[in-house]
Amino acid sequence: MRLVVTGGTGFIGSHVVRGAVAAGHDVLVVDHRANDETRGSVTWRRGDVRDAGCMGSALSDADVVVHLAAKVGVEQALADLPEYVSHNDLGTAVVLAQAAEAGVRRVVLASSMVVYGEGLARCAVHGEVRPAARRPDDLAQGRFEPPCPVCGAALAPALVGEDVAPDPRSGYAASKVAQEQLGSVWARQSGGSVAALRFHNVYGPGLPQDTLYAGVAAVFRSRVLAGQAPLVSEDGGQRRDLVHVRDVADACVRAAECDAVPAGALRAYNVGSGTVRTVLDLARAMSEAAGAPAPVVTGAARLADVRHITASSARAAAELGWRARGDFGSGIRELLAGGRD
After folding, report:
1. How would residue 338 be classed by pLDDT, with cut points 50, 70 and 90?
2. Measured between alpha carbons, how far is 117 from 154 in angstroms, rounded to an integer?
3. Taking a C-beta distance cutoff of 8 angstroms, is the pair 268, 196 a contact?
4. What pLDDT digit, counting tens, does each position of 56-114 carry?
5. What would the pLDDT profile of 7-48 be if each residue is shown by its tens digit?
6. Which of 33, 165, 191, 201 has its CA 20 to 30 A from that of 312?
7. Which of 282, 281, 99 is nearest to 202 (CA)?
């Protein structure tokens, strides 16, 4: 097959390109950071996904588009919102419009677990509930756990499935929900299929560092490699699912090859390791692996952050034949080794 990979020079995209080539596919990368060149079965083309002419040309003989190009990370201020909408939503709209024009029938869309907000929890009295948004006053007082929205009792975090309605808590999250909605419209009207892969916390070689929008693993890496203690927000009890980037790339390639999604439909898939860890667990693992000081818990909190978000990836296993295989300990060591390059 011929795959067009947008954002193919990025952290996840570069691994997807390598995985696609290993699987025997031809690849055209469209990325604003690319240099125009061809090596083997991969062609790189400098371009912006918001440019209809660029995308129309790129997709003219594509079988599948793997759309990864996006502005990522929780915004630092409301002034960032136009950039998220421009890159993520306008960019997706242009890609989909040109895919329809070119007759592309399959799209793999990079979505995110952030679409769930606080996800799902269980109340001893009311069963499964959706936690309400956390309040500024509670965060300021160190009350980080969201209570039951019905009775106010303490909640136990639960794994969220793909059929739970989105509940975005940041501009970035809202832009990912909009991408999925655009994909659903495209599938229904074009007769194509969209696999929306909701990535969890991705880590591994090539993880960006020293940017305002870096994920928590990248921020911790910068500190421990400098011999400093990682700074852990809230009380460190935030639950996350860390998944290795090679596993994520494998999910993208499998979705590109697979007929699991019916024509005319969008189907969402959680892409996580299946192992729940706290942010403090991650910080401790990175400190120990780097020989750095123990983590420092700061108590600081941001309103746009969610407390817990972990999900079941059973659907991806059943329908895409995908399971995460990366080992956390060796993955952390690899991540730190890459940061010393």
Report:
1. confident
2. 18
3. yes
4. 999 999 999 999 999 987 767 888 899 999 999 999 999 999 999 999 999 999 999 99
5. 999 999 999 999 999 999 999 999 999 999 999 999 999 999
6. 191
7. 282
Sign for the pseudo-dihedral over CA of 279, 169, 155, 198: negative
What pLDDT is stored for residue 78 in this prediction?
Answer: 87
HSE of 311 in the Cβ direction (CA atoms, 13 Å)?
30
Closest CA to 65 of 97, 32, 88: 97
- Cα separation of 144 and 138, whole Å? 7
Answer for the pair 16, 8: CB distance below 8 angstroms, yes or no. yes
Residue 55: CB partners within 8 Å, gap ≥ 6? Answer: 30, 47, 49, 94, 95, 98
DSSP letters of 2-44? EEEEETTTSHHHHHHHHHHHHTT-EEEEEETT--SEEETTEEE
CB 245 within 8 A of CB 207: yes
The residue whose two tokens read 């991408």 is 179
